Structure formats: C-alpha cells, structure tokens
C-alpha cells in the first residue's frame, strides 16, 4: 500500500511535467524531497527520528533491510547514511552532508535543508520561465553578498576566552539528546579541543586525537 502510494505520486509528478522539463525539474524535486525528510529535525527544538532499516523503495531513496537495527537521532548525516539514494542529484545532498561533517563536525542538517530550500526556489524560478544560467549567476552573486554580510557581522574570537567558547559549545549541545547536561559537558568539550589544537594553525583540529571514555 505504501509503495503503491509513492509510485502513484511519482507518476503524478512526471505526468505534470513536459518531457523537456523532466531533465531539470525532476532531479530538483527529488533533492527537495530528501531535504524535507530531515527538515523537522533542525534546530534546538528539532525532533528526533527513529530510523528502522527495511526493504523499502521510493522514487527518491531506498532503505536496506536489517531487522532489529534501530537508530534514534536528529543528526542529518546519520539519517542520510541510512538511505541508499537512487538519483545522482539526491546523492549530492548526502555528499554535501558528509563534507560538512568532515569540515566542521556540525551543521549537517542545516546545510542539507538550506540546499533543499535553494533548489526549491530554483524550481519555482524555472516554472516562471527564467533561464537556468540566469538563476545560477544570480545565486553566485547572492552567495557573495551573503558572505560579505556575514563577515561584517562577525566578531573576533580568542582561544583564550573560555567563557565565550563555552557558550558556543553549549549552543551546539542544546540541540542534542544530552542538552539537559550541556552546562556540565560544554567546559569538558572545550578543554578537550584546546588540548589538541595546533597553536600554529588553530583552524585545524584533529578530533581523532581526543580519547572518549564512556562511564555508566
């Protein structure tokens, strides 16, 4: 019943588009659907997802069967790892999430939701007859302006400012399951990172150098 409904929705989408539109619009719609799947897990009040692996295929993704394997998380990268995406455009969102996780270790859900929103905007602009090249050039200009505004809003941060660093860590922990213990965990996390940071290159931190010991 569930797969039949997904197939019907897929057919309705394809029938509503001209063949010339499918090449551009269908990949956009698939990517937006993937972003929408994790949209509600974003932010400090984001909901956790219970991911159970099963043999289930839709137009946008496929989940492999693994009975008894249940994951509860609100981390976008973890959720997307459970999906075997079928379309190259949708797979790019997974790669985007992986790159974000490697580069900063956070913001995996945000970057996918943001990308999905931009792709959804692209779809609406294409529906109005705006050429893809015009949309691409406009997005590049908007990105450049956004970076300029962020630079103007930014404030310098010293690694010796423990109070400010702890506040930043607390903000990140507030969206996790351990949020009720963020006040106790934030100083521990900050101290652990400062102990392994390279003074000559403070922007590069190897988190593998931090040993995590779990105690009950």
From TrEMBL:
Gene Ontology terms for molecular function: ATP binding; ATP hydrolysis activity; ATP-dependent protein folding chaperone; unfolded protein binding
Report any Pfam family annotated for this entry.
Cpn60_TCP1
Residues spanning the membrane:
none
| Listed InterPro entries | Chaperone_TCP-1, Chaperonin_TCP-1_CS, Cpn60/GroEL/TCP-1, GROEL-like_equatorial_sf, TCP-1-like_intermed_sf
Keyword annotations from UniProtKB, A to Z: ATP-binding, Chaperone, Nucleotide-binding
Highest taxon of the source?
A: Eukaryota
In the record, the note on similarity to other proteins reads:
Belongs to the TCP-1 chaperonin family.
Q: What is this protein called?
A: T-complex protein 1 subunit delta
What is the originating organism of this protein?
Paragonimus westermani
